Amino acid sequence: MSQTFIHAKVVARRSKDRGHADHGWLDTYHSFSFANYNDPQFEKFGALRVLNEDRVAPHTGFPFHTHRNAEIFTYIVSGELTHRDSMGTSGASPNFFRIKRGDVQFTTGGSGISHSEQNEHESETVHFLQIWAIPWNLGLTPRYHNLTIDEQRKRQGFVTIISPLRAGKNASAAQEEAAVPAIGGTIPIHADLVMGASIIAKGSSATWKVGGNGAVSYKEDRKIYIHLPMSRGGKSKIRLAEGTVLGEGDGAFVTNVNNGDLLVIESVGVEEAEVVVLDSN
Fold first, then answer.
1. Distance of alpha carbon 110 from the chain centroid
2. Where are the beta strands (DSSP E) in 86-221?
3. What φ, ψ does residue 79 adopt, rounded to 5°?
4. Most buried one in 43, 96, 168, 171, CB count within 10 A?
5. What is the per-residue pLDDT for 83?
6. DSSP strand pairing (222-227 vs 237-240)
7. Do residues 129 and 179 touch, judged by C-beta distance below 8 A?
8. How far is residue 106 from each of residues 90, 97, 142, measured CA to CA in Å?
9. For the segment 246-280, what is each residue's pLDDT rounded down to a tens digit?
Protein backbone atom coordinates (compact mmCIF):
# COMPACT_ATOMS: atom_id res chain seq x y z
CA MET A 1 0.00 0.00 0.00
CA SER A 2 1.40 3.38 -0.96
CA GLN A 3 1.89 6.10 1.62
CA THR A 4 -0.80 8.17 -0.12
CA PHE A 5 -3.58 5.73 0.59
CA ILE A 6 -2.80 5.56 4.28
CA HIS A 7 -4.52 8.93 4.57
CA ALA A 8 -6.56 9.23 1.35
CA LYS A 9 -10.33 8.82 1.33
CA VAL A 10 -11.84 7.13 -1.74
CA VAL A 11 -15.54 7.06 -2.61
CA ALA A 12 -16.61 5.21 -5.75
CA ARG A 13 -19.11 6.76 -8.19
CA ARG A 14 -20.65 3.76 -9.91
CA SER A 15 -21.68 3.99 -13.54
CA LYS A 16 -25.16 2.63 -12.82
CA ASP A 17 -25.80 5.49 -10.40
CA ARG A 18 -24.98 8.25 -12.88
CA GLY A 19 -27.65 10.28 -14.61
CA HIS A 20 -28.55 8.75 -17.97
CA ALA A 21 -30.56 9.81 -20.99
CA ASP A 22 -30.90 8.13 -24.38
CA HIS A 23 -32.31 10.54 -26.96
CA GLY A 24 -31.73 8.22 -29.89
CA TRP A 25 -29.13 10.46 -31.53
CA LEU A 26 -27.41 11.06 -28.16
CA ASP A 27 -26.70 8.49 -25.45
CA THR A 28 -25.33 10.37 -22.45
CA TYR A 29 -24.24 9.65 -18.88
CA HIS A 30 -23.85 12.42 -16.29
CA SER A 31 -21.47 12.07 -13.34
CA PHE A 32 -22.74 15.44 -12.02
CA SER A 33 -26.06 17.26 -12.19
CA PHE A 34 -26.74 18.27 -15.78
CA ALA A 35 -29.79 19.03 -17.94
CA ASN A 36 -32.74 17.05 -16.52
CA TYR A 37 -30.55 15.09 -14.10
CA ASN A 38 -30.34 16.82 -10.74
CA ASP A 39 -28.75 15.35 -7.62
CA PRO A 40 -27.71 17.77 -4.84
CA GLN A 41 -24.99 15.29 -3.79
CA PHE A 42 -23.29 15.66 -7.17
CA GLU A 43 -23.31 19.33 -8.09
CA LYS A 44 -19.54 19.76 -8.33
CA PHE A 45 -16.25 18.48 -6.93
CA GLY A 46 -13.66 21.16 -6.39
CA ALA A 47 -13.47 23.12 -9.66
CA LEU A 48 -14.98 20.18 -11.58
CA ARG A 49 -18.60 20.91 -12.52
CA VAL A 50 -19.55 18.52 -15.37
CA LEU A 51 -18.33 15.17 -16.63
CA ASN A 52 -20.58 13.76 -19.33
CA GLU A 53 -19.79 10.61 -21.26
CA ASP A 54 -21.51 11.01 -24.63
CA ARG A 55 -22.10 8.97 -27.76
CA VAL A 56 -23.49 10.86 -30.75
CA ALA A 57 -24.84 9.04 -33.80
CA PRO A 58 -23.66 9.83 -37.35
CA HIS A 59 -25.26 12.82 -39.13
CA THR A 60 -26.48 14.25 -35.81
CA GLY A 61 -25.14 16.47 -33.05
CA PHE A 62 -25.54 19.60 -30.99
CA PRO A 63 -26.78 22.64 -32.97
CA PHE A 64 -25.44 26.13 -32.26
CA HIS A 65 -25.71 26.94 -28.56
CA THR A 66 -24.05 29.45 -26.23
CA HIS A 67 -21.70 28.93 -23.30
CA ARG A 68 -20.65 31.51 -20.71
CA ASN A 69 -18.31 31.43 -17.74
CA ALA A 70 -17.22 27.83 -18.01
CA GLU A 71 -13.99 26.11 -19.02
CA ILE A 72 -15.11 23.31 -21.35
CA PHE A 73 -12.99 20.51 -22.74
CA THR A 74 -13.77 17.61 -25.01
CA TYR A 75 -11.74 14.38 -24.85
CA ILE A 76 -12.33 12.13 -27.85
CA VAL A 77 -12.42 8.42 -27.03
CA SER A 78 -13.33 7.22 -30.54
CA GLY A 79 -14.76 8.66 -33.74
CA GLU A 80 -14.66 12.31 -34.78
CA LEU A 81 -16.53 15.50 -33.92
CA THR A 82 -16.85 18.58 -36.12
CA HIS A 83 -16.78 21.97 -34.44
CA ARG A 84 -18.01 25.33 -35.77
CA ASP A 85 -18.22 28.53 -33.74
CA SER A 86 -19.15 32.21 -33.68
CA MET A 87 -15.50 33.29 -33.75
CA GLY A 88 -15.17 32.27 -37.38
CA THR A 89 -12.42 29.78 -36.67
CA SER A 90 -14.14 26.73 -38.14
CA GLY A 91 -12.37 25.60 -41.25
CA ALA A 92 -9.18 27.50 -40.44
CA SER A 93 -7.46 24.12 -40.21
CA PRO A 94 -9.01 20.67 -40.69
CA ASN A 95 -7.33 19.47 -37.51
CA PHE A 96 -8.77 22.36 -35.57
CA PHE A 97 -12.45 21.91 -36.21
CA ARG A 98 -12.63 18.15 -36.81
CA ILE A 99 -11.31 16.51 -33.69
CA LYS A 100 -10.65 12.78 -33.50
CA ARG A 101 -9.16 10.06 -31.32
CA GLY A 102 -6.26 11.49 -29.29
CA ASP A 103 -7.51 15.08 -29.54
CA VAL A 104 -8.61 17.39 -26.76
CA GLN A 105 -10.39 20.63 -27.59
CA PHE A 106 -10.70 23.34 -24.99
CA THR A 107 -13.06 26.33 -24.82
CA THR A 108 -13.06 29.30 -22.47
CA GLY A 109 -16.72 30.34 -22.59
CA GLY A 110 -16.01 33.57 -20.73
CA SER A 111 -18.22 36.48 -21.81
CA GLY A 112 -20.04 34.21 -24.26
CA ILE A 113 -19.44 32.07 -27.31
CA SER A 114 -21.71 30.04 -29.56
CA HIS A 115 -20.70 26.82 -31.25
CA SER A 116 -22.02 23.60 -32.71
CA GLU A 117 -20.68 20.06 -32.38
CA GLN A 118 -21.72 17.60 -35.06
CA ASN A 119 -20.86 14.04 -35.97
CA GLU A 120 -20.51 14.34 -39.74
CA HIS A 121 -19.04 10.87 -40.22
CA GLU A 122 -20.91 8.62 -42.65
CA SER A 123 -21.27 5.65 -40.31
CA GLU A 124 -19.26 5.88 -37.07
CA THR A 125 -20.65 6.96 -33.69
CA VAL A 126 -18.43 9.44 -31.84
CA HIS A 127 -17.67 8.71 -28.18
CA PHE A 128 -16.26 11.49 -26.02
CA LEU A 129 -16.06 13.00 -22.57
CA GLN A 130 -17.29 16.55 -22.15
CA ILE A 131 -15.90 18.15 -19.02
CA TRP A 132 -16.62 21.57 -17.52
CA ALA A 133 -14.65 23.40 -14.85
CA ILE A 134 -15.58 26.52 -12.91
CA PRO A 135 -13.23 29.40 -13.86
CA TRP A 136 -11.56 31.57 -11.26
CA ASN A 137 -12.82 34.76 -13.00
CA LEU A 138 -16.04 35.63 -14.82
CA GLY A 139 -16.36 37.46 -18.13
CA LEU A 140 -13.09 36.20 -19.60
CA THR A 141 -12.28 36.62 -23.28
CA PRO A 142 -13.48 33.51 -25.14
CA ARG A 143 -10.66 31.34 -26.49
CA TYR A 144 -10.02 27.94 -28.03
CA HIS A 145 -7.12 25.54 -27.75
CA ASN A 146 -6.50 22.19 -29.39
CA LEU A 147 -4.04 19.50 -28.38
CA THR A 148 -3.25 16.07 -29.83
CA ILE A 149 -1.77 13.48 -27.50
CA ASP A 150 0.30 10.68 -28.98
CA GLU A 151 -1.19 7.32 -28.06
CA GLN A 152 2.18 5.81 -27.16
CA ARG A 153 2.91 8.54 -24.62
CA LYS A 154 -0.25 7.59 -22.74
CA ARG A 155 0.94 3.98 -22.69
CA GLN A 156 4.15 5.05 -20.94
CA GLY A 157 2.35 6.66 -18.00
CA PHE A 158 0.11 9.61 -17.25
CA VAL A 159 0.33 12.46 -19.76
CA THR A 160 -0.62 15.89 -18.43
CA ILE A 161 -3.07 17.52 -20.85
CA ILE A 162 -4.33 20.62 -19.01
CA SER A 163 -2.67 22.83 -16.37
CA PRO A 164 -3.43 26.27 -14.87
CA LEU A 165 -2.62 29.46 -16.75
CA ARG A 166 0.84 30.31 -15.43
CA ALA A 167 0.01 34.00 -14.89
CA GLY A 168 -2.90 33.06 -12.62
CA LYS A 169 -6.18 34.77 -11.90
CA ASN A 170 -4.62 38.27 -12.04
CA ALA A 171 -3.21 37.80 -15.55
CA SER A 172 -2.88 40.88 -17.75
CA ALA A 173 -4.49 41.07 -21.18
CA ALA A 174 -1.10 40.33 -22.73
CA GLN A 175 -0.63 37.28 -20.50
CA GLU A 176 -4.11 36.06 -21.40
CA GLU A 177 -3.26 36.43 -25.06
CA ALA A 178 0.04 34.60 -24.63
CA ALA A 179 -1.82 31.76 -22.85
CA VAL A 180 1.27 30.18 -21.28
CA PRO A 181 0.38 27.09 -19.20
CA ALA A 182 2.03 26.19 -15.90
CA ILE A 183 3.25 22.96 -17.52
CA GLY A 184 4.77 23.28 -20.97
CA GLY A 185 3.01 21.52 -23.81
CA THR A 186 -0.38 21.50 -22.06
CA ILE A 187 -3.57 23.53 -22.52
CA PRO A 188 -3.89 26.47 -20.08
CA ILE A 189 -7.05 26.59 -17.96
CA HIS A 190 -8.48 29.40 -15.82
CA ALA A 191 -8.75 27.15 -12.77
CA ASP A 192 -6.46 25.45 -10.26
CA LEU A 193 -6.91 22.19 -12.12
CA VAL A 194 -4.67 19.63 -13.80
CA MET A 195 -5.93 16.91 -16.14
CA GLY A 196 -4.07 13.78 -17.18
CA ALA A 197 -4.73 10.55 -19.05
CA SER A 198 -3.05 7.17 -19.37
CA ILE A 199 -3.63 3.87 -21.15
CA ILE A 200 -2.55 1.16 -18.71
CA ALA A 201 -1.75 -2.33 -20.00
CA LYS A 202 -3.35 -5.32 -18.33
CA GLY A 203 -1.40 -6.17 -15.18
CA SER A 204 0.54 -2.90 -15.22
CA SER A 205 0.14 0.30 -13.23
CA ALA A 206 0.54 4.05 -13.68
CA THR A 207 1.15 6.70 -11.05
CA TRP A 208 -0.45 10.14 -10.89
CA LYS A 209 1.47 12.76 -8.93
CA VAL A 210 -1.06 15.00 -7.18
CA GLY A 211 -0.81 18.66 -8.12
CA GLY A 212 1.01 18.08 -11.39
CA ASN A 213 4.55 18.47 -10.02
CA GLY A 214 3.74 21.68 -8.19
CA ALA A 215 1.83 23.36 -11.05
CA VAL A 216 -1.10 24.23 -8.77
CA SER A 217 -1.56 27.07 -6.29
CA TYR A 218 -3.53 25.17 -3.66
CA LYS A 219 -1.23 22.49 -2.30
CA GLU A 220 -3.36 20.91 0.42
CA ASP A 221 -6.65 19.02 0.35
CA ARG A 222 -6.62 18.40 -3.39
CA LYS A 223 -9.74 16.84 -4.91
CA ILE A 224 -9.04 14.10 -7.45
CA TYR A 225 -11.69 12.59 -9.70
CA ILE A 226 -10.68 9.39 -11.51
CA HIS A 227 -12.81 8.21 -14.45
CA LEU A 228 -12.67 5.00 -16.49
CA PRO A 229 -14.47 5.56 -19.82
CA MET A 230 -16.68 2.85 -21.30
CA SER A 231 -14.20 2.13 -24.08
CA ARG A 232 -13.36 -1.58 -24.01
CA GLY A 233 -16.76 -3.25 -23.99
CA GLY A 234 -16.71 -3.70 -20.23
CA LYS A 235 -13.41 -5.61 -20.32
CA SER A 236 -11.21 -3.04 -18.56
CA LYS A 237 -10.98 -2.53 -14.80
CA ILE A 238 -8.68 -0.62 -12.51
CA ARG A 239 -7.75 -0.98 -8.86
CA LEU A 240 -6.62 1.90 -6.67
CA ALA A 241 -3.87 1.26 -4.14
CA GLU A 242 -6.28 1.17 -1.19
CA GLY A 243 -8.31 -1.58 -2.87
CA THR A 244 -11.24 0.10 -4.64
CA VAL A 245 -11.94 -1.54 -8.01
CA LEU A 246 -13.60 0.46 -10.78
CA GLY A 247 -15.28 -0.89 -13.88
CA GLU A 248 -15.97 0.95 -17.11
CA GLY A 249 -18.08 4.07 -16.58
CA ASP A 250 -17.18 4.16 -12.88
CA GLY A 251 -15.42 7.06 -11.22
CA ALA A 252 -13.89 7.74 -7.82
CA PHE A 253 -13.70 10.80 -5.58
CA VAL A 254 -10.32 10.93 -3.87
CA THR A 255 -9.87 13.42 -1.02
CA ASN A 256 -7.51 14.06 1.88
CA VAL A 257 -4.51 14.15 -0.47
CA ASN A 258 -1.92 16.89 -0.98
CA ASN A 259 0.42 18.16 -3.64
CA GLY A 260 3.14 15.59 -4.30
CA ASP A 261 1.20 12.55 -3.12
CA LEU A 262 1.30 9.56 -5.45
CA LEU A 263 -1.85 7.80 -6.63
CA VAL A 264 -1.07 4.35 -8.02
CA ILE A 265 -3.64 2.91 -10.43
CA GLU A 266 -3.41 -0.72 -11.57
CA SER A 267 -5.09 -2.24 -14.62
CA VAL A 268 -6.80 -5.47 -13.49
CA GLY A 269 -9.25 -6.20 -16.31
CA VAL A 270 -8.81 -8.47 -19.31
CA GLU A 271 -7.97 -5.51 -21.57
CA GLU A 272 -5.96 -2.31 -21.18
CA ALA A 273 -7.61 0.55 -19.31
CA GLU A 274 -7.84 4.18 -20.44
CA VAL A 275 -7.94 6.39 -17.34
CA VAL A 276 -8.65 10.11 -16.99
CA VAL A 277 -7.68 12.04 -13.85
CA LEU A 278 -8.99 15.50 -12.89
CA ASP A 279 -7.06 17.12 -10.04
CA SER A 280 -8.42 20.39 -8.61
CA ASN A 281 -8.60 22.57 -5.51
1. 19
2. 98-100, 103-108, 113-119, 126-133, 143-148, 159-164, 187-189, 193-200, 205-209
3. 85, -160
4. 171
5. 85
6. unpaired
7. no
8. 14, 11, 11
9. 999 999 999 999 999 999 999 999 999 999 999 99
